[in-house]
Model the fold of this input.
Amino acid sequence: MLICDNCISNWIFNFKNVQYSTPTVNMFINKDCFFNFIENLEEILLTKNLEFEYREYSKYKNYTSNYKILYNPKYDIEFHNLHEQNSLDEVTNSFNRRLERLDFRKLVVVCHTRDNFEHRHLTRLSLVDLPKERKFLISTKKYTGLFTNICLKTDKEDLPNIYEETELYLKNKDFKKLFKLI
Done:
């Protein structure tokens, strides 16, 4: 029910002690790949079995990964597998098993402004075919659009790490809205 472009879903599921109900848990997804995934999600859910190949290097300039990269050529999506360093078959099976748990009617999408975020991604987030209350942007600046902006008040320019600054997230009224949906 929760699709994130980084491993914040892992933190949320662990904090709330609920079963992983997203295929993207423990993964980082480049912004363009994230939106390719979201925009094709209904079709992907119908396939029930997304196929991957491993990539050693990301196709995106300015981004290197120390992790195994799952690549789906049909949808042109890279998933950077942050925590599961298993075989391609194991990771693919895990991804597809979690994909089956996804209930599109209860879907919540979370994007953040870290890691190659560009202004054009605001438009793509606004265009995701979900109610505003089910689309979240986590940032340190205030943005407006057809999404809920979780604007964290901090002196830092980059987003704080949720594992290191949990209270900052938990005190935010819009983060509490997200938390209630999970």
Q: What stands out?
A: The chain has a mean pLDDT of 87. Strands lie at 2-4, 27-28, 53-55, 68-72, 77-81, 108-112, 135-139, 148-151. The radius of gyration is 16 Å. The chain is about 35% helix and 20% strand.
